Prior knowledge:
This protein has helices spanning about 40-45, 65-70, 90-105, 115-125, 125-140, 165-175, 230-245, 265-270, 310; strands at about 20, 25, 60, 75-80, 110-115, 155-160, 180-185, 215-220, 245-250, 255-260, 275-280, 285, 300-305. It is α/β, with parallel strands linked by helices. The chain has a single domain, classed as Alpha-Beta Barrel (TIM Barrel). The strands form 3 sheets. Strands 1-4-5-6-7-8-9 form a 7-stranded parallel beta sheet. A hairpin with a 6-residue loop joins strand 11 (about 275-280) and strand 12 (about 285). Helix 3 crosses helix 5 and helix 4 (about 115-125) packs parallel to helix 6 (about 165-175). The longest helix has 14 residues, at about 230-245.
Amino acid sequence: xxxxTTIEWTRNDDGTPGRTWNPVTGCTKIxxxxxxxxxxxxxxxxxxxxxxxxxxxVQIRTTKVNDPLTWRKPTRIFVNSMSDLFHNEVDQHWIADxxxxxxxxxxxxxxxxxxxxxxxxxxxxxxxWIDEVRTRATGKGLPADQWQWPLPNLWLGVSVENQxxxxxxxxxxxxxxxxxxxxxxxxxxxPVDVSExxxxxxxxxxxxxxxxxxxxxxxxxxxxxxxxxxxxWFRSIRDQCAAAGVAYFHKQxxxxxxxxxxxxxxxxxxxxxxxxxxxxxxxxxxxTHGQWGINDHLEGWACVQRVGKKNAGRELEGRTHDAxxxxx
Length: 328
């Protein structure tokens, strides 16, 4: 679980793969974006084996916590790709120890993503807890005069699958100190407007940091039960980022892609109600071709086809979007 990763947005600037680091594994579902969790599928498949003896139950991996301190080559590291660090079953002192490792391992860049926005905001604004992180970091080799808060090598993000959770999680992230703040809109399950939080928010509201979101990632769902995304959802977020001058990264289209992007041979071989659907732009509900009404096109439904993650690719309107946030 300290392996190199194929996750596109964790790769290094030179194109080499980044790494994952899982001092905690296991989680529980909290919102619609969790329904088809890839991490749960992997962990439960190997329940009882050495890698995941407790399956997807929350488990502290004490032997893993200091691993980044031993990795000599600077790299990007996705923290807890198989869990959520701010899960309520993870003790806050253990979270402090993990933050201390990130503080001491200054040569690396850490990417930390959560759906537990409230606990993230609470801990990272708590002076007592922050002081615990500082003390632990000096014990792990960080020179006392090099302590900085927020950690300059930590990118902090929240998952956003629809507008409901954008309205809840994004303001919490904006109230949390971080060198880089980002959104992972994957799996994207509905239209999302985050324009007011992108770049410099110009907010005078108490507790809000003036610099808002620095980076946005989008992606469609993959896996056996993948839900299709309307292509307009990706385009909208791309355009919001462009207008705000914020870095945009489109990770994948997922299992489904716009039927306009499918070649004629694939279209002819896949016209059935299991592999071709219409997606409503406002709420993501789907219908088959047999349910299609004569006036449905007026509502903006998109026709999508299931072609698999690899064939769907990463292009959005003929190009890839690979921007990373600018960092000091």
